[in-house]
Structures are given as C-alpha cells and as structure tokens.
Amino acid sequence: MPESTSTLRFWLINTLGWALFCVVSLAMTGAFGGGSSSGSTLISVGLGVLLYAISGSVRALALRRHWWRLDLGALVLRLALAVLLGAALAQLLLTAVLQPALALGWVDFAGRSGDFRPVARLLYWLNTVLMLGLWTALWAGLHGVRSARQAELARLRAEAERSALERDALRARLNPHFMFNALNNLRALILEDPERARQMVTDLSRTLRHALEHARSEEAVLADELAVVRDYLAVEAVHYEQRLQVRFDVGADAAQARLPVMALQLLVENAIKHGIAVCPGGGEVRISAQCRDGLLRLQVDNPLGVAAAGNATATAGHGVGLAYLRSQLGRGGCFHLQPADSRMQAVLEIPQCARP
C-alpha cells in the first residue's frame, strides 16, 4: 500500500475514533456526571481534539524516526514514553484553557466547582494515559502487522527475482560453452560431411529456438523437454561420436507431465560432463521417465569415471546447475544424486498435483 494511502486512511480512522470518544464522553457525562454543562462539554470536546492531534503527532514522529526498525523492547519504550508525555501535554493544555474560562465565567459546571487538587489531576492524567495508550497500541499493532506483511512480500519478491537472475545467469553460462563446441564441430563438418553439417545446423537451431521461447517460462511439458534434449544430444553426438550412446525409456503417461524448464537438459548435461567426457571409452546415458500416482519420476544415469569414483567432491552434486535445479523444485519435489555400482544416478521426483 502506498504511504500516502496509508496516511490518509490513518487520519480518517483517527478522526472517526476521537469523534466517537467525544460523543461517548458527552453521553456518559450527561448520564452519570450530574447532567451536562458547558464545562464538561469543553473538557470532552477539548480532550478529544487534543488527543486527536497528539496521536497523529506520535505516529508522525515514529515514522520519521523509523521506530519500527528498532527491536520490540526499544519500540515499546518509545511509544510508552510518547503516550505518557502526550497525556501530560493534553492535560496541561486543557487546564490552561479550562481554568481561565472558569475564572472569567465563560463556562461552568452547573453550580459545581472544578476539582483541581493534585490527586484529581493525577486521576485525570491516568485516564488520559489509558485512552491514548489504548489507541496508540491499536494503530501501532496494525502498523506492525502491515509492515511485517510488506517485509514478507518484499522478501518473496526478492527471492523470485534472485531465482530469475540465477536462471538467466545459468543459461548465459551454459549456452556459450555448448555453442563453442558446437561451432567448432560444425566448422569441421562443413568440408568433411556437408549433409551432417546441415543436419547439425537444424538440430542446433531448434535447441536455440527452444531457449529463446522458454527464456521466461517456469515450467514445461516433458514431451517438449525430451524433443529439445534429443536435438541437444544430436549436436553433442557429433563431438563425442561413438563415445556417446543414449537410451530412452519414457512411459506414455509421463509425456504430459510438467517439470521446471531446463531440468532434464541440466541432468543430461551433467551426465555428459561428469560421465561421458571423463570416461576414455565413453558410455551410455540412460534417460527414463515414469508418472505414477501423481508423481513424475525422472532418472538420468551415466557411467562413473575412475577419477570421479574416488573423488567425493565429484559425486557431491553441488554444482551451479544442480543447485539451481534444487531451488526450482518447490514444495514436495526432491532430487537425489548418488553412485550405484559403476554408474551415477540422478533422480528427480516432481508431484503433479498441487504444484506451487
């Protein structure tokens, strides 16, 4: 909510609140105070006007000095001091007007004299502290709740923006690396095998078109992601040749399942980078996907190189791409990366119901 709107709403509520105080005070004085009089009317209306101005001033002071950025104890202490001093100021100003008015005969208490003894003044002040304190606690509590809600919304927006930046940075990091290899291989094929070069250009263009079309998407259908991965693997096959073998096992019920954009491609890239690329003889990348009981289970496994098998950090799964993938799973999703025999298995499970 804009600050101007919040301020306008406060002054409207503040006006209605203290106007109601004046009405109730006049009614109670007439019913239980021996009848209304000009003096009691001056006290009720004057005190209401003074508390209206003082409560607005306390709020303005708290906002200007950023009291809500302090810890709870410091905030309560400042508000309490403001209430005590504000109530004292209201009583001093009211007395400064009331006593001369009584002395000059401008107002009276219907034949009764005003009580200005120290004990009576203390009671008046305590009553004013009570009214001003309750009102201050009310708007301070509402303001605190609204500030907490705005802070939470700001935090969520910041996390969403950070996630988008991480995704864009990841794409910017991966695409040049992929393009570098692809263009080098394409240059070699142009003279050696023009037909394969043309097919590689087709596969590469489809991969890049997908990256452009889904640059701001959060989710994609598995069937679309599989098509992109096939094009990507076709380009990579030119680089690795017979060292890269791929086997798909995708259930028909999983084709329309939804998953984070680039999730499958990240797993396949990880399998090639940490599996095929480090194995002298290459190997087979297996991609399987099944959807049962509202849960998509996606598995990509690759041969585990000798160096990676003895290196704990190589199997930890804390790379930028996989860290990004974990952050995109949302509620209920999970990701596991662990070695099994001589292969590395990456398992992604994504609920298809109640996605965030």
Radius of gyration: 37 Å
The count of helical stretches stands at: 9
**Major sheet: size, sense and barrel closure?**
5 strands, mixed
User: How would you classify the helix and strand content by structural class?
Assistant: alpha+beta
Helix content: 55-70%
| Total DSSP E strands | 7
Summarize the topology:
Blueprint: H1 3-32, H2 38-64, H3 72-103, H4 118-192, H5 194-213, E1 219-221, H6 222-240, E2 244-250, E3 258-260, H7 263-276, E4 283-292, E5 295-303, H8 306-309, H9 320-328, E6 334-340, E7 343-351
Parallel strand pairs: 2-4
Antiparallel strand pairs: 1-3, 4-5, 5-7, 6-7
Structure description:
With 356 residues, this protein is of the alpha+beta class. 65% of the residues lie in helices and 13% in strands. It is built from nine helices and seven strands. Strand 6 and strand 7 form a beta hairpin. Helix 4 packs antiparallel against helix 5. The longest helix has 75 residues, at 118-192.
Concise description?
With 356 residues, this protein is of the alpha+beta class.
What features would you highlight for this structure?
5-stranded mixed beta sheet, two-stranded antiparallel sheet, 65% helix, 356 residues, alpha+beta, 7 strands
